[in-house]
Design brief:
Layout: E1 3-6, E2 11-13, E3 16-25, E4 28-30, E5 33-40, E6 45-47, E7 50-57, E8 60-72, E9 77-84, E10 86-89, E11 94-96, E12 99-101
Parallel strand pairs: 1-3, 2-4, 3-5, 4-6, 5-7, 6-8, 7-8, 8-9, 8-10, 9-11, 9-12
């Protein structure tokens, strides 16, 4: 498995895809992300859809999220329609949008 890191000073305008890898966002992505797992760090931001098995958000995301497991840390700011099997949210996390938890 490979891990791709989008560092703090990097801005990507376009889609990011990693079939078997993990994507860490410390900078900004304006586009969709598809990978095995996605982690948005504090200070990181994604404007677009996320499709992954596991998604962990500490920063900001707007668009949509389709995943198996979604984890929102206390600093997470999410404005998205979410479809997930499981959702874990820390106190302080903000989520605005339609949420569908399918169970698993």
């Amino acid at each position: 498995m490979t891990r791709s890191v989008i560092e703090e000073d990097l801005i990507i305008e376009g889609n990011v895809a990693s079939k078997e890898g993990d994507v860490e966002v410390k900078g900004r992505v304006s586009g969709d992300i598809a990978s095995r797992s996605v982690e948005i760090h504090v200070g990181g931001e994604v404007k677009g859809s996320i499709s992954a098995e596991t998604v962990r958000i500490q920063g900001k995301q707007s668009g949509s999220i389709n995943c198996t497991e979604l984890s929102l840390d206390q600093h997470a700011e999410v404005k998205a329609d979410v479809t997930a099997q499981t959702l874990i949210s820390e106190k302080g996390a903000r989520l605005v949008g339609k949420v569908q938890i399918t169970g698993g």
